[in-house]
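Objective 1b: paired records.
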Amino acid sequence: MSGERWYDALARLRRAGLPHVLATQVTSQGSTPREPGARMVITADAIIDTLGGGTFEWQLIACARERLERGEAGLSLEAFSLGGRSGQCCGGFVNVLLETDLGTATRLALFGAGHVGRAVASLAAPLGWRLDWYDSREDAFSGLDPASGQHRHRLDDCNASAESLPAGSHVLVLTHDHAEDYALVEALLRRGDMASIGLIGSRSKWASFRGRLERAGIPHDRIDAVRCPIGDSGGDKTPYAVALAALAELLPLASPRPEGARRDALRGLESAEVRRLFS
């Protein structure tokens, strides 16, 4: 069991977009290890904080991990008779609310922290995506406050940075340097497992890059998948307009969070028994 407290773990996991379950004891009757309001966080390979230990807690952990494994997002209410279902001597009864968050299915790798890059990062923040943000300049991220979901990296080697991305990432390449842009696009296309690649620039820039990529032996179908120019800002070239257009183009390509499952789970909790528990 980790020495981390549940609220610190919850914040960390949500920032990183990682799957987890928040377990909250909502009611108790008789003798129980913890009181209503006690919480713990459960992941596939970690347990943070405790609801009292014993067989009851291990049953709860198994239930939470089953929900993660099955991909069941949302809320569920679990009842434990400590003398019956859990076989513990204290003999009380508890209800535990499980809030399952499957994390974010969308990862965006953003190369470039200039005006457009900063606007993209700001606009993407409410979407709940994991953002890996790269720039090669020493002071690229100066003046920026830490932000939820953002992971900032120094871009020292384009090939190494491209190789470090998880498969299925969405990528926007908009650095301050055309040589970096090209090196990144070529490295990403050689991998061939990105969900999408967008490149900032004009049609003439893309025509030049395309010729170089073809001569480098990149398959045509991979080259054709690159979006350049990114978005359609209607001729407005201000950073905000370009960033807004780029995200509007990317949004339907990105995998949505499984909110449907969460809504289904919420509907499942609309029972008279649950209302009675919280009345």
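Objective 1b, second protein:
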Amino acid sequence: MPLLEIRNLSVAFDTSAGLFHAVDGIDISVESREVLAIVGESGSGKSVAMLATMGLLPETATVKADVMRFEGRDMLAMSPQERGKIIGKDISMIFQEPVASLNPCFTVGFQIEEVLRRHLGLRGRDAHKRAIELLELVGIPDPVSRLKSFPHQMSGGQCQRVMIAIAIACKPKLLIADEPTTALDVTIQKQILDLLVSLQIEHGMGLILITHDMGVVAETADRVIVQYKGHKMEEADVLSLFENPQSRYTKALLSALPENAVGDRLPTVADYDFEAEIR
């Protein structure tokens, strides 16, 4: 039984121009201890699909699915209260912009301890001690004093580590990382990815990694889903995807890697027409 199983997921937004279909009938599943990469260019519906799973989309969104199960439990049949007990505890998400995701009005320590209070019932010294342990786990130096810091007093890389600490605070069974290195420099990107993978292995989590970086996919993923304009174009284990891609869109993504540059020009997905593949 998959840890997470989603079938025929569709997400549409009510706009002034009518319904906009951001996700159109995709299937997603991930096993415990597996790293699943969801890859595609911006606007392909990667983040929207995961936000729908988390129940974090606005009221203007219409979410439909034939199946949405976590550990065999029907998430579609759950009340908001029942779902709230899972989200943030058993399923956690690291968002794209760490500084924007943290509340600027509260210290880092308060925000970590808030999760511990809500889901684990930890308070006072117990919550404080666990918050220190979490900052140590994600590699933040001098964690005792850092708990008193506000997000604006920390670097982007440190804020991302705080977000990871919050996400793993309750030892989730599934961790969703949405472009976790986008706003970071190359050196910090590598550190954050290594940290995520080591935590995934150590805690036996399922990990869904949302990215547009095929290099990251090659280094970290066990299996890959390729999306384009809300459609699943291809799904394969990582070795098969790179050695024998089946979709023209996947081939275009791979051809756009830096090593495939011709002269001073790098091929882009804009050079291709994929509409026929999604009809």
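The mean pLDDT is 89. The chain is about 40% helix and 25% strand.
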